[in-house]
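As a point of orientation, let us examine one representative protein, giving the amino acid sequence and backbone structure tokens.
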Amino acid sequence: MLAEFTGLTALAELASRLTRVDSPVIDNWSDVATCFRSWAGRPSLRNELRDHLNTLSPREAMWVIAHSRETTTHFSWCLRDEPDEPFTFWLHEYKPWRDWRPGYADSVHNHRYHFCTTLLRGSYLHERYDVRLGLGGRSVVWAKMESRAQCAAGAVGTLFADDFHRIPRAADGTMTFLVKSRAVSAFSLSYDPESGISHRHVPVEERLEDLTKNL
């Protein structure tokens, strides 16, 4: 990451809270969730994020673009990724629902990392699932919905890497801010309840050795 790119004041404040020398919150993700919930309640957060993006230098903007990615349901914009910090900060910009393609947020899935999130604008339907895993935890055998909630702007949530959830629909213009842990698993899983098909997902950056062997 660019050495001079320290990010938004609000983000620097959150990073400082998570890595205090006298009380390392990041050692326990439940403590991170408590810290994040109090921080995310700031009424000026959305304006601060907007002002930050408006004042990026061309070099900083190129860094954000290079470290961000597109999925079938949303754009993931990376705002902070310091190598010596055990977390990263992101903005998720959901595509209009008519442009969604099956297989990402709308599938039953978990993540390789823990994360906390807050809805900056818009809304989405959020579902949590109980699942049964196959041999070695490398597939999903079945999934049963445990809860469903319509989440609006200001909502705050936390998911651990072994939690399974789904966002079947989001209002146009929905955006969220997230703090993610570093990966705690080598892969994640997704499951389609209609077809009963499970997929294991390994990020491309972890596959260079496989690429070399397969060449």
